[in-house]
Design goal:
By secondary structure, the protein is of the alpha/beta class. The chain folds into 2 domains: 2-98 and 290-309, NAD(P)-binding Rossmann-like Domain (Rossmann fold); 100-282, NAD(P)-binding Rossmann-like Domain (Rossmann fold, 3-Layer(aba) Sandwich). Helices cover 36% and strands 14% of the residues. The chain has 12 helices and 12 strands. It has helices spanning 11-19, 35-42, 58-63, 82-87, 100-115, 118-126, 155-168, 181-187, 194-200, 220-225, 243-251, 291-309; strands spanning 2-5, 23-26, 47-50, 69-72, 91-93, 147-151, 171-175, 190-191, 203-206, 231-234, 257-260, 280-282.
């Protein structure tokens, strides 16, 4: 079986594929493949390792219906039309949990960075605007014993909650489809409804999938229900928040600040007005960008293909 790796992933996964006896073709360019290049190159392969930059939609799947298995280099797979793949009998797998610690670290970092206006103040030094000591200028927020609200208490949300509870004795509330017994026992976490999450959180951190229920969920109406002193943190998908509404909420004082590792659209325009705000910290979707996380993502993405090739159960199958 021949595998196309549509991006230059760490070698650990590529070597695993080769050791399993698979023929491997790797896209080594820095830029992602175009839709046309992806379709053309897939014509003589049976397996594909892909990422969020590739749109595996109905049109692609019809043109590449001969594929047997698609493996996502990442936990999220909203770029893949899983229902259409299922109808065509194509197995879809992902790489969950590989980046839980790394992404939780980014969420925690964004919380700290936004709360102390670090990105803005770093830029002020570069622009020569350190200036004089002013007792009431650039004041941030302290986090000790505040309330962390977690929307989507999965693996990453749980790791973020552990960091906040351990470092700052933060109370944990969460909104999730199911009760999270481990978090309740270890952290004293309390399950609440969505409106209570909005109104009671000092820091609201988002760790959910992007789907029809969550797209644009954090918008003008939801921001208006939050505390005026609240921080909004999103490391899930940019489409979960309405970016225009977020900007308006920040400049109007509806909420206090924001930390984003994801934006809508991506890449973000350097002219986006969010980048000029003092109380905002933004990173370019680097939640999983550690050596350890990316190596594990590579290993898991390859393992999905290898398990399918050997006729075994694909442990991380999503359809």
């Amino acid at each position: 079986m021949k595998v196309l790796v549509s991006l230059n992933i760490p070698e650990v996964g590529i070597e695993l594929l080769k050791q399993a006896g698979l023929e491997v073709e790797v896209w080594r360019e820095v830029r992602p493949m175009t839709a046309e290049e992806l379709v053309e190159t897939c014509q003589d392969v049976q397996a594909l390792i892909t990422t969020g930059s590739n749109k595996i939609n109905g049109d692609f799947l019809q043109k590449c219906s001969h594929l047997k298995v698609i493996s996502q280099f990442g936990a999220g797979y909203d770029n893949i039309d899983v229902a259409a793949a299922s109808q065509l009998g194509i197995v879809v797998g992902n790489a969950p949990d590989a980046m839980s610690d790394a992404t939780a670290d980014i969420a925690f970092t964004l919380m700290l960075t936004a709360s102390r206006k670090i990105c803005y103040l770093h830029k002020s030094i570069i622009s020569g605007n350190w200036g004089y000591f002013r007792p009431r200028a650039h004041l941030g927020l302290e986090l000790k014993r505040k309330t962390l609200g977690v929307f989507g208490l999965g693996r990453i949300g749980f790791e973020m909650a552990k960091r906040c509870h351990g470092a700052y004795l933060m109370d944990i509330i969460y909104c999730s489809r199911t009760s999270k017994v481990e978090a309740e026992q270890q952290l004293g976490a309390r399950k609440v409804g969505f409106d209570e999450l909005l109104t009671n959180s000092d820091v609201l951190t988002v760790h959910c999938a992007l789907n029809n229920d969550t797209r644009g969920l954090f918008n003008r109406d939801t921001f208006e229900k939050m505390k005026s002193s609240a921080l909004f943190i999103n490391t899930s998908r940019g489409g979960v928040h309405n970016q225009h509404d977020l900007y308006q909420a920040l400049v109007s004082g509806t909420i206090w600040g924001a930390g984003l590792d994801v934006t809508d659209p991506e890449p973000m325009s350097p002219e986006d007005p969010l980048l000029s705000l003092e109380n905002v910290a933004i990173t370019p979707h680097i939640g999983s960008a550690t050596v350890e996380a990316r190596d594990e993502m590579s290993r898991l993405a390859a393992t999905n293909i290898i398990q399918f090739y050997r006729g075994e159960q694909v442990d991380n199958r999503v359809n």
